[in-house]
Amino acid sequence: MFAFVLCLFALLATASLAGPAEREANEESRTVVGEPLCDFVRQAANAPQLEELSTPLPELGILEEAITDRQLPIQEENLLQTERLKLLEDRKLFESSLINWLFFEDLAPKQRAIIRGVVIRCGFTGTRSSLAASVFGRWNASQRATFVPITHALSHTQLIDSRDGKKLGNALELIEDLIDIQGENQSLPSDRQFQLIVRLTPDARQKLEHADHFLKGENHVFHKGYPISFRQFRKIWLRGQEAGLHFCLTKDGRFAQIHIDYRFGLLHLGPANSDVRADGNHQRHADRWPQFAVAVRPMRTRRAVL
Q1: In this structure, is residue 12 part of a structural domain?
Q2: pLDDT digits (tens, 9 = 90+) for 279-299
Q3: I need a surface site. Which of 22, 38, 187, 242 has the fewest CB within 10 A?
Q4: pLDDT in tens, 218-255
């Protein structure tokens, strides 16, 4: 009898301890799974539809394409130099557009698919096809400066299994849903700015566990609620290796904060660490993920479709 009472007491004690932990986990999940982006979708759905007045761009226009591969007329030597200078100017113009794009069509297909996923998740299935474009247009400059570079970096980061060298897909494929975009907000600490909040695929944590060039660790001070850390290998002063992705996961591995680290030391602790617009960060991004496309786009305007 005494043994039965002792076991019963132990079970009650265990339940009392598990209760707060379970409630804490549930509260954490509710915090993470909020629907802040749905406000943009509702606003866009209630606004007049906007039509882009422009000619479509070609699907590809790789920046690295050499000028000498084009069929140029035979002219003076300085013409080729002029073309090369123009290409560099185009690159600067293109890279500046990376942080302030206004047009949905400028995004890569996978980036557009993520925004369409937000529209569907917010319950607007079957609505007009341009709704996703209107949602993107309502994000402010810092939100676009967060979404575009991070998704660009994810899509051009190939995950390799450190055990056998097999490809595990690109890092963008780890995202199941986009939950929130935390852009610039001076009222919040640096670890709550310039990052994406996402729902990961069920196998995302396992892939990151085995991904080569990703270092696993723990977050003890920053990124509260996201204790599991996976940092892409970086090295200071090594061009092409200074910028790196940082995944911060919840305990269950289903949600994550994702940002890009561009800086080291004390500079790593400020908001500018993950802001691609900050001095020098844009070049570090281009050095690590150089797969840019460039094209000449005509002037465009928008008009409301009644």
Answers
A1: no
A2: 999 889 999 998 755 444 444
A3: 187
A4: 998 999 999 999 999 999 999 999 999 999 999 999 99
Q: How many CB atoms lie within 10 A of CB 221?
A: 6
| Domain contains 126 | yes
Helix axes 281-288, 141-155, angle to 10 degrees: 20
Specify if 101 maps to a domain: yes
Residue written as tokens 């994550």? 256
Taking residues 27-38, what's their average pLDDT? 61
Distance CA 197, CA 258 (A): 7
- Per residue in 141-178, pLDDT (tens digit) is 999 999 999 999 999 999 999 999 999 999 999 999 99
Which domain does 201 fall in, by range?
33-305
In a domain, 26, yes or no: no
> For tokens 């209760």, what's the residue?
19
Count structural domains, the chain. Answer: 1
- Shortest CA distance to 98 belongs to which of 148, 154, 57? 148
